[in-house]
């Protein structure tokens, strides 16, 4: 018996368990075959892999519509990564109508597909959706991975993102980044009277939600490690305060009322602290606050402007910007404030350093010769590389797999304004992220749970 039929027998047993779960459930459909095709994404620009993604077979008319929509999300995610080239469906020779049968691999080789994704959607008696998919190595004629998901219909887009993540991981060996969210500042209205609202959306620009009404200025939103909370600065009441916002409950909480200006709060990797800068007189220093005891601890103490702190993934170090030596530069210190040392050494002014989730790089903004650049360097300051430049680029934030950086790019002129963009760590595949209005200061969540 072919292995893909044996796999489905296991699936039928596991579905009984997943029917009890209220949210998305995931299970393996198959014992993956050894990967024959793969993408090495560590060596810079590569030729996108041609991949065929069929419309998922539906158990009825409604399921069929979901099948088409889910397949479209998978295709769009993989295409935006720049690593895959979904083939046009007009070129398909085989129409996959039976998910339980192996594909006619010869038909897919003719159109030069190296990988093939097939799927099936079923509307369960309780109204939930069950989506199954398989990734095939066309030339080895092997199934590489098979998974199923059970969820409510409103989560159908997340199924698409989860399948895209699974395909990405199986073919690249790296975690995907599609089942994630972006929090950012939505900007609308005339340039001299911009209304700024806190906004949340999926990484592809869908499912937009506004988290503030625009009555008060909001700045620097940042996700908690579990992606369930956001910290940000709001001028509600006429003075800046640091807030926590719970995405699920909608509850807001003031972290602390500080007597001075506060800037750029960001969570520690364990979610137990917030690190931020407080301004007194003409300078600012970096502090941490314990979110349980609300006790603060000062980490820097110099007559200069020190801000934009960001923890390393292990929480042992912090990178920040300071003008203590006359111009903005990037520094690194231990989490207790000891061992402060400058790491940026090139020409220009450096700002907004953000530590990669992988720990191997720090992203930054650099102002040089009137141009704003987004780049990366190692935590010891070596290996500086510029990924992109423009009239005004700023605010880098990392995808959870540390392979893509999002930032905002402002454009000059009366009609100009900021937009969100992404760029690969290799400096290629620069793409604008769709938003309904101007958008700035993005923060990328971890993979959703």
List the main descriptive attributes of the protein structure presented here:
single chain, mainly beta, Rossmann fold, Neuraminidase, seven-stranded mixed β-sheet, four-stranded antiparallel β-sheet, 31 strands, disordered N terminus, cell division, periplasm
Number of strands: 31
Strand content: 35-45%
Name of the CATH architecture of the largest domain: 6 Propeller
Radius of gyration, in angstroms, nearest whole number: 24 Å
Number of helical segments with 4 or more residues = 4
Helix content: 10-25%
- What is the overall silhouette? globular
CATH superfamily of the largest domain: TolB, C-terminal domain
SS class: mainly beta
User: Would you tell me which CATH topology of the largest domain applies?
Assistant: Neuraminidase
Kindly, what is the distance between the CA atoms of the first and last residues, rounded to a whole number of angstroms? 36 Å
- Please outline the major beta sheet: 7 strands, mixed
Mean pLDDT comes to 89
Unreliable stretches (pLDDT < 50, length at least 5) are: 1-28, 30-35
Q: What's the domain count?
A: 2
CATH class of the largest domain: Mainly Beta
Overview of the molecule:
- Keywords: Cell cycle, Cell division, Periplasm, Signal.
- It contains four helices and 31 strands.
- It is mainly β and 449 residues long.
- It has two domains: 124 residues, Rossmann fold, CATH 3.40.50.10070; 267 residues, TolB, C-terminal domain (Neuraminidase), CATH 2.120.10.
- Strands 1, 2, 3, 4, 5, 6 and 7 form a seven-stranded mixed sheet that branches. A four-stranded antiparallel sheet has the order 10-9-8-31, with no helix packed on it. A four-stranded antiparallel sheet has the order 11-12-13-14, with no helix packed on it.
- A hairpin with a 6-residue loop joins strand 9 and strand 10.
- The two termini are 36 Å apart.
């Amino acid at each position: 018996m072919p292995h893909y039929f044996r796999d489905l027998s296991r699936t039928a047993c596991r579905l009984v368990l997943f029917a009890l779960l209220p949210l998305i459930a995931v299970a393996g459909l198959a014992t993956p075959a050894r990967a024959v095709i793969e993408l090495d994404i560590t060596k810079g620009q590569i030729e996108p892999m041609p991949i065929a993604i069929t419309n998922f077979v539906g158990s009825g008319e409604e399921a069929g519509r979901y099948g088409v929509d889910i397949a479209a999300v998978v295709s769009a995610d993989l295409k935006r990564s720049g690593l895959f080239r979904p083939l046009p469906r007009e070129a398909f020779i085989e129409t996959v109508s039976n998910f339980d049968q192996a594909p006619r691999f010869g038909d897919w080789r003719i159109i030069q597909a190296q990988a093939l994704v097939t799927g099936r959607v079923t509307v369960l008696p309780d109204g939930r959706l069950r989506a199954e998919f398989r990734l095939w190595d066309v030339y080895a004629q092997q199934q590489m991975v098979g998974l199923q998901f059970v969820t409510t219909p409103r989560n159908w887009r997340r199924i698409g993102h989860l399948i895209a993540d699974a395909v990405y991981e199986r073919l690249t060996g790296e975690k995907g980044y599609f089942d994630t969210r972006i929090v950012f500042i939505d900007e609308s209205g005339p340039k001299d009277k911009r209304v700024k609202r806190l906004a949340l959306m999926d990484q592809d620009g869908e499912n937009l939600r506004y988290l503030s009404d625009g009555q008060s200025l909001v700045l620097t939103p940042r996700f908690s490690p579990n992606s369930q909370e956001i910290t940000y600065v709001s001028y509600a009441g006429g003075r800046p305060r640091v807030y926590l916002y719970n995405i699920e409950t909608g509850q807001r909480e003031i972290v602390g009322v500080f007597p001075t200006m506060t800037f750029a709060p960001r969570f520690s990797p364990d979610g137990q602290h917030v690190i931020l800068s407080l301004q007194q007189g003409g300078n600012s220093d970096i502090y941490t606050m314990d979110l349980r005891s609300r006790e603060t601890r000062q980490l820097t103490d110099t007559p200069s402007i020190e801000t934009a702190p960001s923890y390393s993934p292990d929480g042992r170090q912090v990178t920040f910007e300071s003008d203590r030596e006359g111009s903005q530069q990037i520094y690194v210190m231990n989490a207790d404030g000891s061992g402060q040392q400058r790491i940026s050494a090139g020409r220009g002014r450096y700002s907004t350093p953000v530590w990669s989730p992988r720990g191997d790089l720090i992203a930054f903004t650099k102002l040089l010769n009137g141009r704003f650049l987004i780049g990366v360097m190692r935590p010891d300051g070596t290996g500086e590389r510029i990924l992109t430049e423009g009239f005004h680029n700023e605010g880098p934030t990392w995808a959870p797999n540390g392979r893509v950086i999002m930032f905002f790019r402002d454009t000059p002129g009366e009609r100009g304004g900021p937009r969100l963009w992404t760029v690969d760590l290799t400096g290629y595949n620069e793409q604008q992220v769709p938003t309904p209005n101007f958008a700035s200061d993005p923060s990328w969540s971890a993979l959703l749970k």
